[in-house]
Structure formats: C-alpha cells, structure tokens
Amino acid sequence: MASVEQAPAAEQNGTGIPVENPATGQTITTVPTLSADEVKALVARARAAQPAWDAIGFEERGRVLRRAQKWVTDNADRIIETIVSETGKTYEDAQLAEIMYAAAAFGFWAKEAPKFLADEPMKSANPLVKGKRLVVRYAPVGVVGVIGPWNFPLTNSFGDCIPALAAGNAVILKPSEVTPLTSLLMAEGLRACGLPDGVFQVATGDGATGAALIDEVDFIMFTGSTKTGRKVMERAARTLTPVGLELGGKDPMIVLADADLERAANAAAYYSMNNGGQVCISIERVYVEAPVYDQFVAKVTDKVRALRQGRSSGPGSVDVGAVTFPPQLDIIDAHVRDAVDKGARVLTGGRAAAGPGMFYEPTVLVDVDHTMSCMTEETFGPTLPIMKVGDAEEALRLANDSPYGLQASVWTKDTRRGEALARRVEAGAVCVNDAQVNYTALELPMGGWKTSGLGTRHGAAGIRKYTKQQTLLVTRLAGKRDPHMFPYSRRVTGLIGKLTKLLYGRGKRD
Ligand code: NDP
Questions:
Q1: Of 20, 216, 246, 377, which one is the catalytic site residue?
Q2: Choosing a second label site near 437 at 20 to 30 A (CA), which of 32, 390, 428, 446?
Q3: Which residue range or ranges hold the Aldehyde dehydrogenase domain (predicted)?
Q4: 260 alpha carbon to ligand 1 midpoint, in Å?
C-alpha cells in the first residue's frame, strides 16, 4: 500500500510527485507515482481481500464504518490541517464541506447499505412464473477504482469510497496528484478502525496511474473535468468496465424581481466564493431581472469586496483561500481578461493577488454576455459574472444555453413559480432560494445532466452502482414437464395463443 512513509524513497529515486501547499508555495512532501505494474499488484491484493470483506456482512462492515465515523470526528483537526495544507483552502471550507460530509457519510452508508442492498422479493403478473420465488439481489462488483479531483480531497475523492466499501467491495483510490495526502491519511484511519488489509488502498500517481487503474477494476467512479471524463469512458470501453462520472458544471443562478435580495446576494457571494469558487456546484453565472439588477449588483459587490483572502491560520482567520491547482490560476485570469476585452467591467477584484502562494482576488464582473468564456466555460475560481435579463424566460433560455447541466438555483418569494421554473432548468439538481446544500442530504441523488456526468452519487443509486444485480428464480413445486416444453403440439400452441389474447388482447381500440 502506498503510504506517506514511502514518500522519501520516492523522492530519492526521482519518481515522486512533490505535494505543495498552494497558500505558501512550500513543498510538504513527495509521494510515489505508481506504475501500471504497481497498480496491477494493488488490484491483485484487493481481489484477494475482497471476498472475506463481503462475507462478513453488513453488520460487521457497518461496525468498521461507524468506528471510522468516530475516528474522523476525533481526528478532525489533524484531517483539516492536512486538507488545508495541500489545497490552500480555509479552515471552514475543510470543516463544513469535508469533515462534516465524511462523518455523516460513514454513518449514512453504515445504516442505509443493508436497506438499499437488501434482497428484493418480486411478484410477476406473467403466468409462466406463477408460484415461483423471484428475488433481485445486489452483489458487490468486486474491486472498485475511484479517481478523484483536487478540490475536495476528502468529500469528492474519498467520499465515493464509503458506499463502495459498505457494499462489500475492495476499493483503490487514485487521488489527484495535487492532493494525495488526505487519502493517505484516511487509509491510516481506516486501518486504525480495523479495516482488513488490502480492502482499501491508495494508488498515488498521475493521469497514467489513473488510466492503469481503469484497465484493472470492475467499476470506475470518476470525479473530475468533463475533458478527462471522456478519456476515462473511452478507456473503460476497452474492457467494458462500467463507469460513474461526476464532471464539470457552469451553474446558473436566476434572480427574479420578487426575490429576497439580501438573502440572494449573501448566497451569491458565498456559493460562488466558498472553497475559492473551486466547487463543481459553485454558482458560476447569475441572471437578474432588470428591475432589481442594480440593487442586487451593489449588494453582491459590497459583500465580495469585504471578503478576507489569504492563508488560513485557523478558524475565522480568512474567508477565501488559495487556488489549489497552478494551471487553474491561468484559466481564471484568461476568463476575466476575455470578458474585459469584450466589454465587461470588473467591479471588484479582477487579478491574481500578490504572492507568496496562489490567490485570485474575489471578482465581480458585469456587462457580460454569452460571447464571453466566463459565461459559457467552467471557470472554477472566485469569480462571479452577473448579467441583466428582461424576464424569467430570458433567464431560463440563457441558463439552459450550456453544454453543462450539473446544478442551478432560482430565487423568488413565489416558491410555486420558482419550483415551476426549476423544473424547466436542464440540470441534475435545482434549488429554490438555496444552493449547494442539497449535496449534504445523502438521501438525494446527485448527478449531472448533459456533459456534467453519468449516473449519480448518494441515495439508493449511489450504492447500487457498485453492485451487480442478480435475478434469482427458484421453482419449488413443479411437474416433470411444463406445458410449453418440447415436444410442441398443435393443441398447446393453440392454448397459448388463446391465453395471450385473453391476457393482453382486450385493450380498447381507438
Ligand atoms: P481532472 O479531470 O483534471 O482530474 C481528475 C482526476 O483524473 C485526477 O486524479 C487526475 O489525475 C485523473 N486523470 C487525469 N488524466 C487521466 C486519465 N487519462 N485517465 C484516468 N485518470 C486521469 O479534474 P481536476 O482534478 O482538475 O478537478 C476539477 C474538475 O472536477 C472540475 O471540472 C470540477 O467541476 C470537477 N468536479 C466535479 C464534481 C462533481 O461532483 N460533478 C465534484 C468535484 C469536482 P492527476 O490529478 O494526477 O492529473
């Protein structure tokens, strides 16, 4: 198993990946880049360990997961410190969206896995199976590969491993090369909680390590960009390995004239800038009805201008953290420059902040339109472009004018109207007078439409995807030969024809 202790060796042989603190620019440590052969060895180990993990059943697995839940809360500060050091995010962003999520998820899957994956006795109307026992069961796929991004090393990389483990699979996690330390710490935590050897392993490395993992496992859960998601699906097609894809987004916020503007402005500032805007379900663009546009823009700009940015030195120290991934800084700046070149105005922010560390100033843009990349491509940074629209229909048309369909929000005091509009937005989740918090309800499916993903996490489907459905049909009492078996006869064939007519031929004619 790759571990933090392996890091110095990796550094010596030159095959390691340096892990940097983006808020300081300092190198924290180095982790190994696993080769395809090393990935194969991890998978072999996982295959050997998985049957026993499956055999101990939900209750025993639940015990390990509940111990892990407690381990997360007991070690919250240590985990937060690790997350903050490798992402540069604030203490609060690590606490609320990562520690709280993981702690809840361990308990949720421990409790719900036996229900979601219980045998389902079925009844059928078909006379051919009358009196037989019909059951659908869910068997673990075997070895699950999870490939994760850098923005939420605990929630979006490790988080998907929890239901996979609860279902009885062995799991190999390939974290982003930028943020591998949280995953390694979780491996240590799970060991301390009694998870058997080989059931959870971390394959540190780069894109090639991820690609090698796809070749070997029975299911790939991928979270990352749409561009890489396509590559993952293509690679998985070679071995017909099923995939779950949680990809990029460009979430629209629609503010109607009757919205509670103070709440909408607070939410716009928070849900576009939390985690430095590096959230797949960040508010990335806003459409505001003309009568309240000026007021809304003034409120949002004041709130964004007041944000404190910098290296987090503990609770309450800063509001907005660093840009975690170096190339992201260029993408954010390119979107802002492109907008300005095409006539947009920067009301606050608008440039990278002075070092050390990688920071982009919290930015509000106005006079924007859909010729600008800031309105059409995922920016994934602390920027908020706001556009004036004539009415709700124009806002809806623009919201749906996107290849993405991850999440959206509608803001109005008329919640019936808001919900009606929400149902017309092309996105996997739409909030009315809220944003992002739906993600914390693990009962709710979370997944993108269009190029934002395939399949969902959370809810029943969020664990059943890690299983193979098996149909069982058991015939207890039966004669030596059923009437439809050989040899065929004119009489039985005629009877089957009559039966078919009797059962299905009585539909009304138009
Ligand atoms: P990337 O797509 O760049 O990378 C994701 C993971 O895939 C990383 O571990 C990466 O490794 C790995 N990888 C890269 N190339 C390959 C390959 N050819 N085969 C297999 N694996 C590969 O995404 P980011 O890390 O930049 O994350 C940001 C993106 O994630 C944003 O688009 C964001 O919207 C999305 N996201 C979506 C979420 C959702 O739930 N829908 C949640 C969170 C983020 P390495 O880092 O080593 O290159």
A1: 246
A2: 390
A3: 13-471
A4: 36
